[in-house]
Design brief:
Among the domains are: 168 residues, Ribosomal Protein S5, domain 2 (2-Layer Sandwich), CATH 3.30.230.10; 169 residues, 3-Layer(aba) Sandwich (Rossmann fold). Helices cover 38% and strands 17% of the residues. It has 22 helices and 18 strands. The strands form six sheets. It has a five-stranded parallel sheet with strand order 11-14-17-10-18. α2 crosses α3 and α8 runs parallel beside α9. The radius of gyration is 28 Å and the shape is elongated. The relative contact order is 0.10.
Length: 509
């Protein structure tokens, strides 16, 4: 009788998958189960779930001592995604199912006590990692099948239960889709209109700033009293951004899979994500982490999309400053005693703030100047230095709202201009590591993409007056190049540079 069998699963550290070989040995002696290989609490409980699942699936639990080894032993392992692979290895060691179909397969699913296969988080990054290491057949819960199928050139076998797995291993025929259990019809939710940039009236300068931010990948700061449209504009930025390319879409989907945010029926994230943490969020919630297995934070959930920090001065200063590293590096590195986890975090930052602590408009505000300065000092200079565009949103009256209706463009119209500007920038930056103007380092910007001397006159004057630093000049020139791309011009002129300087400096700073 076979007493040793092997199957494969995947351990996730952040969004990086590592192949785990599961070995099961059946020995004599008193009945018992030994699980080795740095399992966490959820994985240690697998023995009880699997025993009940086998019994309720009509399979026998082996007698005697069972040793389950998860290799490599030095790699931390967590979660319930190992259940199906362990159960299959136990059955193969017992001789209940042939081991050959399992030899080249990766099994990923949680088991219920009744033997049902339940979907788990992180299937997409797990499948990607296993595919890169030569595995091309995956057995997953049916709820994860669409997500796993996003990876090309693989075979996905969807099972509803442990019984389906046994039938497939014995007969070689993939299980058929079962009819879902009858459930009461859910009440229909009223249709919600998609956000549109044309909804924000009375703020033409801010709408233009959103367009520029989308075209060049620039970070944006909006200042204005409540009700002026700061949140509306931030929510509409993803609607004018280009849809994600296949590689970027898989990256965003992998993070959402690990975080458990993938919507049912839509396994692939194609629209730039939008994340808006509350001002009470902790540093760990923003950048990721946790007391146990590290989970992605808000900066990673916004990867390839937009992170909106509303009421920015209400956030803790340390929380805001934690954004500086992912803004520069495009990733978050979390060091733990047993491992180091890296989460991607390349996003556009949108900050919004009221002009004072009381947030009362115009003459109703009684906040002294010193209190206003203390309020804004919570946003550090180094963080603001990483924001290219700064705009002030005024209080809008009835006349401005009515007059702006004829000029407010839809997101579709603006998105077409943004896409054309990005394509123009991509052609200019072909052969470089960058795809948007905001990514080009200052040294390369000055050397490889010079601007006419006459166009720099306003920046030279501002430097002489101490109104702008050398780094500010680089950021202003990046904005000017975006303005030129939007205007379909070969290079920025004096008009683009002057407007870029106005957007960079802002009236509030």
């Amino acid at each position: 009788m076979i007493t040793l069998s092997r199957t494969h699963c995947v351990a996730l550290l952040g969004v990086e998958g590592h192949i785990v070989e599961i070995e099961v040995h059946l020995g004599g002696g008193d009945p018992g189960v030994t699980l080795v290989g740095l399992p966490d609490a959820a994985l240690r409980e697998a023995r009880d779930r699997i025993r009940a699942a086998l019994a309720n699936s009509g399979e026998a639990w082996p007698s005697g001592q069972i040793t389950i080894s998860l290799s490599p032993a030095s790699l931390p392992k967590s979660g319930s995604l190992f259940d199906l692979a362990i159960a299959a290895a136990v059955l193969a060691a017992e001789g209940s199912i042939p081991p050959d179909p399992l030899a080249g397969s990766v099994l990923i699913a949680e088991l219920g006590l009744d033997g049902r296969a339940r979907p788990v988080r992180g299937v997409l990054p797990a499948v990607i990692a296993a595919r890169e290491r030569g595995h091309d057949r995956f057995v997953v819960a049916r709820g994860n099948a669409a997500e796993a199928s996003l990876v090309p050139d693989i075979e996905v076998i969807a099972v509803d239960s442990l019984e389906d797995l046994c039938s497939w291993a014995r007969e070689g025929i993939p299980p058929q889709t079962r009819a879902p259990d009858p459930v009461a019809p859910r009440p229909r939710r009223p249709a919600v209109a998609e956000p549109d940039l044309a909804d924000v009236l009375g703020q033409p300068v801010a709408r233009r700033a959103v367009e520029i931010a989308a075209a060049g990948g620039h970070n944006l700061m909006m200042l204005g009293p409540p009700g002026t449209g700061k949140s509306l504009l931030a929510e509409r930025l993803p609607t004018v951004l280009p849809r994600l390319e296949p590689t970027a879409a898989l990256e965003a989907t992998a993070i959402h899979s690990v975080a458990g945010l993938l919507p049912e029926g839509a396994p692939l994230v194609t629209m730039p994500p939008f994340a808006a943490p509350h001002h009470t969020s902790t540093r760990s919630a923003i950048i990721g982490g946790g007391s146990g297995h590290p989970v992605p934070g808000w900066v990673s959930k916004a990867h390839q999309g937009v992170l909106f920090v509303d009421e920015a001065p209400q956030f803790g200063r340390g929380v805001l400053d934690s954004l500086r590293e992912p803004l520069e590096r495009g990733e978050v590195v979390l060091a733990r005693a047993s491992s180091t986890v890296t989460f991607p975090a390349r996003f556009q930052l949108v900050l919004a703030a009221n002009p004072c602590p009381c947030a009362k408009p115009g003459t109703l505000c009684e906040c002294p100047a010193g209190e206003r300065r203390r309020y804004f000092s919570r946003i550090s200079g180094p963080l603001l230095d990483r924001v290219d565009l700064k705009v002030e949103l005024p209080q809008v009256g009835r006349a401005e709202l009515l007059a702006d209706r004829a000029f407010a463009e839809s997101s579709a119209v603006v998105a077409a201009r943004v896409l054309a500007a990005r394509e123009r920038a991509a052609r200019r930056l072909a052969g470089t590591p960058w795809s948007t103007n905001s990514q080009v380092p200052g040294a390369h910007l000055r050397r490889d993409f010079p601007v006419e001397r006459g166009a720099l006159r306003i920046l030279g004057l501002a430097m002489d007056q101490g109104r702008i630093s050398a780094r500010g000049v680089d950021r202003t020139l990046r904005i000017a190049w975006t303005l030129a791309d939007l205007a379909d011009r070969d290079r920025p002129g004096e008009e683009e540079v002057a407007y870029a300087f106005a957007l960079w400096s802002g009236r509030a700073w």
